[in-house]
Amino acid sequence: MGPLLDVTDLRSGYALMEVLHGISLHVMPGELVALVGANGAGKSTLLNTIVGVVPVRSGRVSFDGTVISSLSTRAIVRKGIGVVPERRQLFGTMSLEDNLLIGAYSRADRPSRHQLKTEMDGVFELFPKLRDRRLQLTQSMSGGEQQMTAIARALMAKPRLLLLDEPSLGLAPLVVDQIMEQLAGLRTSGCTILLVEQNARLALSIADRAYVVETGRIAMSGRAAELLSNERIQDAYLGGRDDVANSMEERIRSRRMGSAN
Q: What are the residues whose beta carbons fall under 8 Å from the beta carbon of 121, sequence distance 6 or more?
């Protein structure tokens, strides 16, 4: 089985400035792959290039064996790539439920209202806290609830690949812990995820593999557990040990051991 997402020698940028300098990576079906690196390294530009917001200058992006580099963002999303953008970008004056329905708008299968309700109930099973907020305006919700809503909206599109851009940004540590656990649960259920995250320790705690991005290039890659223990990565990105990350690592390790048994 080949990669679901395959990025080869990708270059892109803004106006006269090139940001990505020949990046290559891949995501296999069912994997959770993390992109970690300092702020300004090019991680968000990479996601935006994959979905066509930033044009490709050279190189290739393939999805399930088909080159998508020249397609519009709408066409790329319709092929089965869901996006949770940085800072969520919800429609604040609309209800949570309406935001979720917008998430299903791009689908080619034209689901019925009954099907959408059933799928929305499934999303609420994943994020129980949102069920009672379904008629609430998203602008009046907490940051954590808004982030859950943004993920739920992307899932309503039934993506085969989910791209997330800095889901922990601006959230309290305990809320970040909850979000990361939910992403780990999605991965366990078979969802394929490419996660951009500045909180390297948390990202590596839940990922299968990871790529380290530095100044628009892949500086290092490998199994997430190996990178988590790498001295260079620890010195550059991890700093001191974080109690929330430590507790999450223990929960993720227990979950994986349980699934192996």
A: none
